[in-house]
Amino acid sequence: MSIYLSAFYLPLSLLVLGLLAWGLWRYFRSYSPIKPFSRIEEKQPLSYITGDGFTYTKGGQVVRIVEIQGRDYTGLSEEQLTGLFKKRHNWLRSLPASITVLSQSHRHRVSHDLESVKFHNEQAAKINRAWVRNFDECFRTKHYLIFVTDKVDLIGQISDFTDSATETGLSRGQRDALDTAVDRAMTNLTDYRPRILKGDDLMSYWATLMNGELTRKKLYEGSLEDVLAGTTLRWPKGGNHQEYLGSNTRYSAWLVLMVPAMETSADLITRLMQIPFELSVYQTASIFEKQKAESFLKDRYDSARNFINANGTMLDDIEAIEDLLEQGEVALFQHRFAVEVFGSTIDEMENALKEVNTVISLESFQAARETLNQEALHWAKFPETHSFNVRVKPMTSENLSHFNLFPTVGEGSTRCSFGPHPVTTFKTVQGGDYSFIFHRHEGPKATGHTLVVGGTESGKTTLISFLLSQALKYKGMKILSFDRLHGLEVFTSMHDGVYISDSDFNQLQMNPLQVEDRGGAREFLNTWFQMLTNCTDDDNKRAISQAVVQNFDVARAQRRLENLQYAFGTPEPGTIGEALQQWLPSGSYGDLFNGRRDALDFESPIVTFDMTNFLDAQDILGPLTAYIFFKMQQTIDFGEEQNTGFIVFIDELNKYSRNKTFAPYIDYMHSEIRKKGGLVVSAVQSAETIVNNPLWDGTYKDNLETLILFPNPTADPEHYCKKFNLTSSELNFIQNAPPRRVLVKRMSTQESVQLDIDLSSLGKDIYNFNSDRDVVRKLQNMRGTHANWKDDFLSFCAGSGA
C-alpha cells in the first residue's frame, strides 16, 4: 500500500461530464470517420526533426522528448518515497499552461542476446553459453516525457522542412518556453537521470511509436513524410483490435479508465509495469491556469450542491482543493489516460488485455475496452493529435504524481561503465530477469565499489568467482585478487590466470625500490616506508622523503634496501634506522622485498595472491598489499581509448584495516581505482566485522555503491538497518531467505532487489568456482598436465560429486 493516499481526486462523474461533452464535440469536428486501413503517412502529425533535438509538427507545434530512467522503489524508506513524491509534484506544479506533457511508459519484450557477447577468455565464454540458456527474453520498461507547445497561427502552417521556419519569432518563442519547461523537469527530476533525446535516439522513438514495435532509425533532418513508417495500420470492420502490418503482424487493443478510484496510489502504475506482456501507458496532462482552475472548481461546486444526490463529503473535497489551490500547494490538470496492449497473436493480445484489466480492477478503477475510438487513441499518442483521446478527467497534481511514478521493478541495467552489457543476468525471487552491474550507472568512471557479506558455506566465494568470470567480457579487463585459503585458485587457474600462493612468495623477486619513477612513484614510496617502519612523525617523514630522493638518484639495479639503509641514519634504538632492520636481507622479513630485480608484473589478465599467511601478520600485510596494488597501477593499461576496466577483489577486508598506517591507504585505493575506471569488490564474513571497524566511519561507506547480502538468520538490526540502511522488509528477507538467495542493495539510491543466485544449471561448469580443499588439491595435481586437463578436471569433479 502506498503511503500517498489523497482525498483530492475528483471521483464523481458529474465533475467530468462537461469536459467529456466538450471533448466529443471537438473530436467529431476535427476527426474523420475510421477507415479499415490507414497509411501512417496520411495522418501522422510530425513534420521534421532538427539536429539539436527539436521536433516540429505539421501544425507548427514544437516538441521535445526527455527519457526518464525508471526507479525501483523496493527497499526505499517512507522518508525517501516522500522525498521523490515531492520532487515529482514540484515538477508538475512548475509546468506552464502553454506546455502540454505526454507521459508515455512502454514495456517491451526484448531478447537478451547474451550468447552473442564476445568474451576475451574462452573459459568465461563457455560458462556464459551454459548460463544464458536460462534466459531467452525479458521485459524492459522505458519512460518518456514529451513536451509540446501550444498551437500557433503560423501563416501556411509548417508542412515541409524549411530553414526559415525555425527562424520565425513565434517559433523561437515556442522554443524558449519549451526550453524553460524542460529545464525545470531536468532540475526537479534529477533522481530519475533525465536525458534529452536527440539524433538517432529521437528518430527511433518516433518510429517505434508509429510502428508499434522497437524500431531503429538514423536521424534524417528533412521532411518526415514517408520516412518513419514501416507499417500499415488496419482496423478490422466491426472488430475490437487494431493490426500493425509490417515485417511482422502485431495486434493491439485499448483500455481506457471509465470510473476513477476514490483514492490514488503508486500501486497502479507499478503493477502495470510488472505485467509479463508488452504494453504502453499513454497519459496527457495540461495544467489549468489558476484563474481557470478556480472558475472550474466553482462551477463543479455549484453543480454538486444542486445535484439531487449531493453530500457533504463531496462538497468538502472540492472546498479542500480550492484551499490548496489558493495556497499554491496543488495545481489542477486535464488528464487523459489509455493503455495499449500488444501481442504477436490475437490470443496473446487478449491474455494481456485480461491481465491489465485485472490489475486496474484490483486498484479500484474501472476500465473499458475501446472499440469505436481505437484509431483516435492511436493518433492520440502523438503531439498535436493528443486531444483525439476525448476522455478527459480533472486531476490534481498530487494524484498526477502517483500516475507519473516512472517505476522500473527488478530490471537492473543493461549497460555499465565497463561497456554496453551487464555483468550477467539473474532471476529475481519473483521470477523476473535482473541485469546485474556493479556500477551506479553507465557513465564513465562511475562508482562501483561493492561489499559482499556472507558467512562460511554461504556460497559467497562461488558467487564472486562467477561475477569475476563474467566481467571478462569487457575489453581489456584485468582482475587483481587478494585471496584467502585458496578460495579463488580454481577460478584463477581455469581462466588462465596466475595464482601466487604463500610458497610462491619465497621464490618471487619483489623490490618496491625499483618501481618506475612515474605515476606517483615517489609519493607511494614515502607512504610505503611509513607502513614498513610505523614511523609517521614529521621528522621521520622528512628522513623518508630524503631517502626516496636518493633512491631515484642511483641506477635501478642498485636500488635495494640494504644499499639505502644508510640514508635513514644509524640503527639506534627507537629510530627509523632500527625499524628498518627487520626488512633487510638478514632480518626476519628479509625474504620479501630484497629481490635483485622487481619481477612482479600484471601481464596476465588475472593475478591472484593467496594472502592467508599474512592476514594476521599486520607488519607485513599493509606494505605487501600496498606494493602489489601500486605495481598493478603502474603496469595495467589505464588508457581510456582502450576502454580498459579492472576489478580488485579483497577477501576479509576487515583484517586489512587493522594496521593503523595501512588503513588510510584503503580509502586511497578505493578513490584511485575509481578515478582510473576500476572498482573494488570486498568480502567479509559478518556485518559486525565491517560496520564496527574504523574503516566504516571513514570515507569507505561513502564510496560504496553495491551491497550483496547473503541470508543470515541472526542478522542484527543494529548492523543491517542502522548501518546498511535496510528497511524492515529487507531485514526480514535476510533473516528468513533460503540458501542461494541474496539481497542486492544500491547505496546511492537505496533501491534493492532479491536475487536467485543458484548456479546449479551450469552443470559441471559450476566447478570452475569450487573452493573445496580436496578439489583445489586435485586441480594442483592436474593443472597443465595435458591439453585437455580442464575438461578432465571438470569431469572428475562432476563424477565425484565434489
TrEMBL record:
Pfam families tied to this protein: CagE_TrbE_VirB
Keywords assigned by UniProt, alphabetized: ATP-binding, Membrane, Nucleotide-binding, Plasmid, Transmembrane, Transmembrane helix
Signal peptide bounds: none
Family label: Belongs to the TrbE/VirB4 family.
PANTHER family for this protein: TYPE IV SECRETION SYSTEM PROTEIN CAGE, UNCHARACTERIZED PROTEIN YJGR-RELATED
Name assigned to this protein: Type IV secretion/conjugal transfer ATPase, VirB4 family
Entry's transmembrane regions: 7-28
Superkingdom, taxonomy of origin: Bacteria
CagE TrbE VirB component of type IV transporter system central domain ranges (all copies): 200-391
GO molecular function: ATP binding
